Prior knowledge:
The protein has 263 residues and is of the alpha/beta class. The protein contains ten helices and 17 strands. Strands 8-7-6-11-14-16-17 form a seven-stranded parallel β-sheet, with helices on both faces.
Amino acid sequence: MTFCAVDGLAGDVRYTDAPRRRDELLRRLRTAGYLSAAHAAAELDVSEMTIRRDLRQLEVDGVAVRVTGGARLPDGDGVPFELRADRFAAGKAAVGRAVVALLPEGATVALDSGTTVARLAELLPAGLTVVTHSVPVVTVCAARPELRLIGLGGVFNPATRSFGGPAVRAALSDIVVDLAVLSATAVGPSGVFCADPYDAETKRALAAAARSVVVAADGSKLAARAPIRFASLESVSTLVTDSSADAAAVDAVRAAGARVIQA
Length: 263
């Protein structure tokens, strides 16, 4: 195993051994939340192809999600919920407003966990019944007496600030909602994806309880990848994203049969 120091890199170490190099990439990724393949290649003095191979392996390991130009952390991986909520904030707000416009008056709505959906909860009109396992959504809705709130309990996941597991799925088996709003780690022509199999089961249960399903995803999610598909595009009524989404990615999702609203 060999590695050598590189002058001019502010004390960073260039690792020629792949496992050590991937550890360094993961450290940087967890610090910043996003890693540019080109910048990492220049700073570690290796080829960009080498970095892309490393990022591919980190994605297989479930600790990174490849996006155009590099990689980002999976939702909840080592980054506090509050910091993730601040990323792409304008896009999330635009998506939230567009989703609210789709909600029927007086509807029963299931809201997923995730920072985009949490932003949406702040915009809900009066008169809705809200079903959720998300603690941030519960917190927002509990302070609004004009909303009826049904909370779903189970095993708490600190990363997503939500409850999950068999108790949540069992509760949803007895509930019918007009519309479920789901978050996603990645969206593409082959479906809607997340990074956590535990989270995927809850999302599937929310979708099964709903007459229609809306996926709320800021534009970065259409350039992302994640390992676990929890819904096909055929099962989704509408994908709502924002204007930052790559045009080719939006066209590909539309070509696969999805209705897409760009806020």
